[in-house]
Amino acid sequence: MDTEKLNIVLRILWKGGVTRVAVEEARNINSRLIVYRNASTQYDLSDVDVKVLFDNKSKRIFTLLTSIYAGHRGEEATVDLDRIIKAKDLIRGPALFHDQFAGITGYLRKRKYGEDYAVYIHETSLDSKGKKWALPRIMERKVLEKSKVIITNSNWNKEILGSWGFRAEVVYPGCYPKEKINLDREKIALTVSVWDSGRRPEIYGEISRKIKGKLVMAGYWTRQDTLTEFTKKYGGVTVTGPIPESELRELYDKAAVLIRFGFNEKGPGMGVLEAMGAGMPVVVNDGLGSKELIKDNGYVVRDWEEAVDRVNEILEDENLRREMSKNSWEIAKSLHWSNHARRVRELLSRVY
Fold first, then answer.
1. pLDDT (tens digit, 9 = 90+) per residue, 100-134?
2. Among 153, 41, 31, which Cα is nearest to 96's?
3. Among 284, 317, 329, 88, CA closest to 191
4. Distance from C-alpha of 314 to C-alpha of 327, rounded to nearest angstrom
5. Which of 145, 152, 310, 317 has its Cβ near the most Cβ atoms within 10 Å?
């Protein structure tokens, strides 16, 4: 495969994990990152070849349609169907589309120009229940049926896709493991995400009241009203809002444990991977895809009450924390972004 001509295609350049994966693929495969809309980003793109196709203003009709499925994520998450359709005439050559919505462009290109494409599924909708999900399920199936390669980010996604007859290859998102980790930590429990009501921030507020340390919530909040309501109720939590990568790395270096809950969130959560790369023990629930990465480096819990017990165990047992820190770091080494890129190249070589 001539990687110089590979297009990594992304709908929205913003602060979420989908963006991070696409950016690091473009960087490590030395490919072009094609973006439909640049909402906002905190990532360093100085060494990434980026092309933005359209301006950032979404049409109101698509904002309203998206709100039916993900109103809690704010207007930046709008799925711009008009741009997805227009892009079919603007993209040429080998392409890996990030998510099934961007994959509509690949499907339309295949129909019009006969060009093959690949798709990376971050969260499949095929297991979604209810009538409102009927159209997204139909759309995703059509995109997958024509895709030559399907890549996904967890075995959980792979199993769901397999139950529908689609063969997917798992390539976990990556991280940049530190050369040396800090084993002397403060009694801080950290959680990192793009925050909205669907991520249930109140759970972390309740956890903060019962752990034997401080809780820090880092990351961008998609809606100001959600943030205001949370800080009013849980004043004891340190909420950073969006912060530079350098400050986030400092938190990864000094916090003792990372907490992350998901609710049928089949992807691993980038904060979990980055924390492991810094040598942090992790506590996740069984509703998050990164449960597949937890061995002797943390715990998988059923609810927030159990999370409190496990977090306190890590905060109070220094020997246990140090051992888990080392184990997280060792697992993270196998998840280096260069390994991710190498595997993606191998899979795409079947097509291009």
1. 999 999 999 999 999 999 999 999 999 988 887 78
2. 31
3. 284
4. 14
5. 152
